[in-house]
Amino acid sequence: MFDNLSDKLDKALHVLRGHGQITEINVAETTKEVRRALLDADVNFKIAKEFTNRVKEKALGQNVLTSLQPGQLMVKIVKDELTELMGGETEGLNLAGSPAIILMSGLQGSGKTTFSGKLANFLKKKKGKNPLLVACDVYRPAAIDQLHVVGDQIGVPVYSDKENNDPVALAKAGIAHAKEKGFNVVIIDTAGRLAIDEQMMTEIANIRDAVKPQETLFVVDAMTGQDAVNTAKAFNEILNFQGVVLTKLDGDTRGGAALSIKSVVAKPIKFIGTGEKMEAIDVFHPSRMADRILGMGDVVSLVERAQEQFDEEEARKIQKKIAKNRFGFDDFLSQIQQIKKMGNMKDLLGMIPGAGKALKGLDIDDDAFKHIEAIIHSMTPEERSDPALLNASRKKRIAKGSGRDIQEVNQLLKQFKQMSKMMKMMQGGGGKKMMQMMGGLRP
Length: 443
Known about the structure:
This protein is α/β, with parallel strands linked by helices. It has helices spanning 3-14, 24-40, 45-61, 70-85, 112-126, 141-154, 167-181, 198-211, 226-239, 256-265, 286-293, 299-309, 312-323, 329-341, 345-350, 355-359, 370-377, 381-385, 392-402, 406-427, 430-439; strands spanning 100-106, 131-136, 158-159, 185-190, 215-221, 243-247, 269-273, 281-283. The protein has three domains: 3-85, Up-down Bundle (Four Helix Bundle (Hemerythrin (Met), subunit A)), CATH 1.20.120.140; 100-294, Rossmann fold; 302-439, 434 Repressor (Amino-terminal Domain) (Orthogonal Bundle). Strands 3-2-4-1-5-6-7-8 form an eight-stranded mixed sheet, sandwiched between helices. Helix 6 links the parallel strand 2 (131-136) and strand 3. The longest helix has 22 residues, at 406-427.
């Protein structure tokens, strides 16, 4: 996400990096390039100009010109201003109701129904909630079916009634059903339109007035750029929503919506959608996003995702196997499954500081482990538990069975041995030394 913006900001700030001589003219030129980068990212001209004026004012006010490391100070100022532009603080959901009611709004095609499912999945798995999805799009039968498919996928019930064509009555009935059955969160999926129209606005305002939700969220496709901001403004004037959800941030988005929307509607971005999977949802952290835009990675989010998928019982079993030199390919496969659950591979690698530049232009398959899995699945159970059995004829059979080259099988075995050694070292006295070495890699 934000690849083009990151690249252009990096070039703009390049002249001020390091310890070279910095002048007021350099600062002015840099802020001009920063403004151009923002405009290219589809940020509103007025917002871009105000942003760079603040950066320039702070840079000259904080003695960047006489600083020992002017480039770093300038990057910090840009980072702080980007964070503020996107809202400053992370804003959570208000789930105080009994049940808590969340009303979804947005244009047709914004990803509203899919995101309703993602949010239900997020609240169920990460917040321990018992959500109910309510289908209130009475105009498209396919929308109701889609919500049922999504609900089945994540194990969350869906309330719908195809005989009822009144969305307000449907919403009320859904909430009554939730109270009766003990659901503590209700997510109401409403109808979208291809464009803003009075009928749609009146209808969703009527639903809001009838159910009085704790949260009304506006879902918008980030790839629509500045149009997303204009749509958010029109919806907010009628609904006065509590937060914004940006979907499709994994696409070829220029980032203008994420950077502009808070300034225009004075409402926070609460969530972002980063892929097609039901797990591809992130709480929006302005500071972390600013880090990523400036190529600094997002180690905190990477660690959080790893912790969410970390299975303590499985880890204890693997530790015992490593200690007894019994770590095999079945254990390796279970580790791969945990990594895959963390999300899109390119997104994960982009969270590592400095990796953004290295990955630029590379097309990383979301199923990057499929070749490794094919090779392992072509082994017998005995071979998976004891890799020492793999002689030349066995390797040849495995390569043929997996449709891969013999070189790839050998490469996997080599990597497996190296990883086993490293894991053994971390279990022994080398763990402390390795952690000290890793300390130097912190951003």
